[in-house]
Amino acid sequence: MPGRGRSSLDADRGRRFDDAERRPASLTRSPECTRPLVQGLGYRARVPAPFRPSTRRSWRLFQAFRVEQTDPDRFYGALAADSVAHVAHHTDLDGAWVLDVGGGPGYFAREFRAAGARYTPLDADLGELSGLGAPEPGTVLGSGMQLPFADGSFDVTYSSNVLEHVPQPWLMADEMVRVTRPGGLVFCSYTLWWGPWGGHETAPWHYLGGRRAARRYTRRHGRPPKNVFGTSLFAVTAAAGLRWARGRDDVEVVALQPRYLPRWAYGVLRVPLLREVVTWNLAIVLRRR
Questions:
Q1: How many whole angstroms separate alpha carbon 104 and alpha carbon 99?
Q2: Mapping DSSP to helix (H, G, I), strand (E, B) and coil, where does residue 120 land?
Q3: Domains of the chain by range and CATH?
Q4: Ramachandran angles phi, psi of 255, nearest 5°
Q5: What residues of the chain score a pLDDT lower than 50?
Q6: pLDDT at position 81, please?
Q7: Are the C-beta atoms of residues 21 and 153 closer than 8 Å to each other?
Q8: Per-residue pLDDT tens for 118-148?
Q9: Which own/partner pairs from 241-248 qualify as long-range (CB within 8 Å, at least 24 positions apart)?
Q10: What gap in Å lies between CA 75 and CA 197, rounded to an integer?
Q11: How many Å apart are CA 114 and CA 251, to the nearest integer?
Q12: Is residue 146 helix, strand or coil?
């Protein structure tokens, strides 16, 4: 499945709050903050649909992908609902504080909050955050590679299809682990460069080279692609993600799986080279120790 078309979470915005610093007032927990976004709106948290990585689910997501450009509400709405079900398969979201690194225009906010989570979106691109209207209160403008939060701030740190848009993806992944509390969940997925959608809107010509694909797109459409190889789109592999996840001693690996494929296809991750093409999108799920 595709990426979300995010621009790079550049490293020159935001700042890190050191261990000795207090959290900003807007990010400080209080007894009233357990389920503020549910009780405050007067409705009960909706239990996410069970996560079942079936062939039917994969087909449904593929069908939604086909209308991404013409009906983005349908596509991103389906992806957000599926993503929340996926995260809820590994942890209880009711009352959990979720950081979404690369939060985008708000589709994911609706689903996480409906599941009872306290949701904080972060993005470096104000345009992305404003895609469905003015950014909501609590939105953070900052860099995924230097998250402006104290260590252990969140119950769940989540990112969907952002790593391939930053020049130092594993620095961003390190930051996601850092701001997750012990026992908390890290969920990170990204589009693989050698997969069919690796070049995003320039695919499949990225197989001939990212810059060549970008030049072809510019000639054909009269404008450069939104995701420019080497600037806001980078070649990230499955091998690099597996190596990063398995090489950390401060996390437990909960799951490493092709995000959009049915369960019977999960074995493709065990096959080097083939996994780079067939996996399409790798989901890394970790528990912070």
A1: 12
A2: strand
A3: 25-192+236-288 (3.40.50.150)
A4: -160, 140
A5: 1-43
A6: 95
A7: no
A8: 999 999 887 777 766 777 778 899 999 999 9
A9: 241/163, 241/190, 241/282, 241/284, 242/269, 242/282, 244/170, 244/173, 244/284, 245/284, 245/286, 248/177, 248/286
A10: 15
A11: 28
A12: coil
